[in-house]
Amino acid sequence: MYIWVMDTRDKILDLGEELIRTRGYHAFSFKDISVPLGMKNAAVHYHFPSKSNLGLAIIDRTNDRFLSEIHQWSSLSKEKQLANFLKIYSRSYRQNKVCFMGALGPAYDTLPANMQEGLQKASHEIRSWLTGLLKDGLSEGVFEFTEKPGEKADLIISALLAGLIMGRVTGEPVVLSIIKNLKKQV
Known about the structure:
The structure is a single chain. The chain is mostly helical. The protein has one domain (8-185): Tetracycline Repressor, domain 2 (Orthogonal Bundle). It contains nine helices and no strands. It has helices spanning 8-22, 31-34, 41-47, 51-73, 78-94, 100-104, 113-139, 149-170, 174-185. α7 (113-139) packs across α8 (149-170) and α8 (149-170) packs antiparallel against α9 (174-185). It is elongated, with a radius of gyration of 18 Å.
């Protein structure tokens, strides 16, 4: 029998992502990772020599997961692909987290250059995919909206991001209401 055991690097990445998406990048230290995982700070530094290395690894892993998901969705209908994309945000809401773009975006100017580049790349991947989906759905008559596909993609992403943040502030399911309305608008 094979028993999968999460390695130390994955545990560090998981907790780092949790901290970024709940507290923000600048609101935690390696000690906030080492203590709950029962290790010394040196063990965290072994895997990630700097906090920016950890931050970039989290961005890259999150983006890789997204790319893997959209690849898996590629055979689904345009409506189902969009619904799956929206579920990412409802899942974040249910976990009381903001998306990584919403967590890191407000601190963008204060992030290390490698993280800024990683965040730009991830943003481009998300926006390009959604724009393409909307463009194809519009030309096939599956979606109906008046904006250009890129503009509509930016409106959707911005609304979802803001909905998660606003929901944390108000304690209300703002993003769920946004998702419901987005489904009517596309």
